[in-house]
Amino acid sequence: MDNVERLRDCFDDKVVYKDLKKNSFFKSLKLPSFLRDWVLRKFEDDDGNFEVTDISEFISTYMPSKEEWLSIKNRIIVECETVKILTRIEVDIDIKTEIISFALPDFGVTNKETIIEPQVWDQYKNDLVGGNETWGVIELGYRPPNDEAKPKIPGKIKMTGFTSFCPYDSDVEYYKDVRKEFTTQEWIDILLGAIDYNADGYKDEDEKLAMLTRLLPFVERNLNLLELAPKGTGKSYVFGNLSKFGLLTDGGKVSRAKMFFDTARKTPGFIVGHDFVAIDEVKLAQFSDVKEMRAIFQAYMEKGSCTVNGNNVVSDASVVFLGNIETDNMDEYKNMFTELPVLFQESALVDRLHGFIKGWNIPPMQPGLKVSGWALNTEYFCSILHELRKDINYRAIVDQLIEYDSHSYERHVEAVKRITTAYLKLLFPDVRTVEDVNRKKFVQYCLRPAVKMRNIIQQQLSILDKEYKKDEKQMPSFSIKNIDENN
Q1: Which residue of 155, 214, 254, 395 is most buried, as measured by CB atoms within 10 A?
Q2: Which residues are CB-contacts of 126 (< 8 A; sequence separation ≥ 6)?
Q3: CA–CA dist 138, 159 (Å, integer)
Q4: What is the Cα–Cα distance from 316 to 216, expressed in whole angstroms?
Q5: Longest Cα separation, the chain
Q6: β-pair type (134-143, 156-164)
Q7: pTM for the full model?
């Protein structure tokens, strides 16, 4: 049985036929990968064939564009219809009034315009309380105003039904067990297919692993990374298109209210409720009140919490900075931050970055890198990564395995351990105890890459601040306890 047959046999309905070279019409529909794969699976036969007209009709019916919202409102309010759409929904419960409302961010619909009536909430609350943002098929109706009531009751768009967008059983334990059916090389190829890339399009394993490094924040809590790369290597695609649990925000103006907490509205920012927040085009980003933003970023990146005007913000979201720099500056042994905003010219913030992704080791996007064949469904795969974030067993294994000098600089140690843990979850999810670990592979695929990623941060710190050239802040040597040559 070849790799593809084993993949289909092991994962069954979690596998979908992807042909991104041929099915370019999906790009025009602007569907994120997790929605595209769900639609494909819904309409594909056992051989991966489907009718384009069926998919187009489904999308036009249940996945309208933002520009169609006026038409939808007309159907709901004027024509008195109920309308079903597949979208993301954000629920809120007002502390003072106990009124439950929702927002539809993809359509610009705010909580002020909506309501979930108590009997409807009782019916669907279990599907809606899992997070502040949920994907699903929502049925919308209208509650007309009542001018005779005292006080007057305004008209609201109301939820009349909800079906959670959870098309697969994310059985993490099964996923871990299935990993044993594949070699490390085969598993690396499976991971690439899961995120829409063709493993055969890479020249060697190093290029494949460089691409997969971008998935580390998907699978590990509070892992802070910086990637600098040439244009066209797919940064935005990976961080903005694959997972419904993450958020890619354009550089632009990055403010305290936008990122952490809006004191005027008393609402949390992007950092709350996501697995990661990736700030794209960081080279062009404008950080409002640099001193304040630097202090807040430093606090959050250190301990996963910060205080904004007396409001405590806590999250396990990773922070990822993405930027393009000139080719001549892509050198870890000289200052790579000269093109970045002044926020990154301070060593204290840079020190709180756990690792650096060398984006120039990732080949630029080309047709040969687009997946064409059977692959893990992106939605299912990213849901598994989301669940693996919660599993603390992997970190316990890393703590037991890694040795270093007791006087080592704590931030270097923590960064290496955190990145190593992420690699272990990604590449060897079947590991449940220290005895399960193949030490040689652990060093090759987990520990050594983690040290390299942190080492680049140390190199930049030494350039930015002579304090980091002192012996006590140098990178420690890491080793493995009790290496068994037969393991």
Answers
A1: 214
A2: none
A3: 7
A4: 14
A5: 83
A6: antiparallel
A7: 0.89
What does the alpha-carbon distance between residue 315 and residue 320 come to, in Å, rounded to a whole number? 14
User: For 112-162, how does the pLDDT look when each residue is reduced to its tens digit (9 = 90+)?
Assistant: 999 999 999 999 988 888 665 688 899 999 999 988 888 888 999 999 999
Q: 3-state SS string over the chain?
A: CCHHHHHHHHHHHHEEEEECCCCCHHHHHCCCHHHHHHHHHHHCCCCCCCCHHHHHHHHHHHCCCHHHHHHHHHHHHHCCCCEEEEEEEEEEECCCCCCEEEEEHHHCECHHHEECCHHHHHHHHHHHCCCCCEEEEEEEEEECCECCCCCCECCEEEEEEEEECCCCCCCHHHHHHHHHHCCHHHHHHHHHHHCCECHHHCCCHHHHHHHHHHHHHHHCCCCCEEEEECCCCCHHHHHHHCCCCEEEECCCEECHHHHCEECCCCEECCCCCCCEEEECCHHHCEECCHHHHHHHHHHHHHHCEEEECCEEEECCCEEEEEEECCHHHCCCCCCCCCCCCHHHHCHHHHCCCCEEEEHHHCCCCCHHHECEEEEECHHHHHHHHHHHCCCCHHHHHHHHHEECCCCCCHHHHHHHHHHHHHHHHHHCCCCCCHHHCCHHHHHHHHHHHHHHHHHHHHHHHHHHCHHHHCHHHCCCCCEECCCCCCC
For the beta carbon of residue 23, count every other beta carbon within 10 angstroms: 17
> Do 460 and 353 meet the contact criterion of CB atoms below 8 Å apart?
no
Q: What amino acid occupies position 319? A: V
Given a contact cutoff of 8 angstroms between Cβ atoms, the answer to whether 132 and 91 are in contact is yes
Per-residue pLDDT tens digits for 352-403: 999 999 999 999 999 899 999 999 999 899 999 999 999 999 999 999 999 9
The token pair that represents 354 in the structure block? 């756990």
d(CA 443, CA 448): 6
Q: What are phi and psi of 65, to 5 degrees?
A: -85, 165
456: number of CA atoms within 13 Å, CB side? 21
Q: Are 234 and 210 in contact (CB under 8 A)?
A: no
pLDDT digits (tens, 9 = 90+) for 324-337: 988 888 999 999 99
Q: Tokens representing 436?
A: 């399960």
Q: What is the mean pLDDT of the chain?
A: 91
Tokens 């709350």, residue located: 272
CA distance 192 to 45: 23
CA of residue 403 relative to chain centroid, distance: 30
User: CB count, 10 Å around CB of 308?
Assistant: 20
**Are 50 and 44 in contact, with CB atoms under 8 Å apart?**
yes
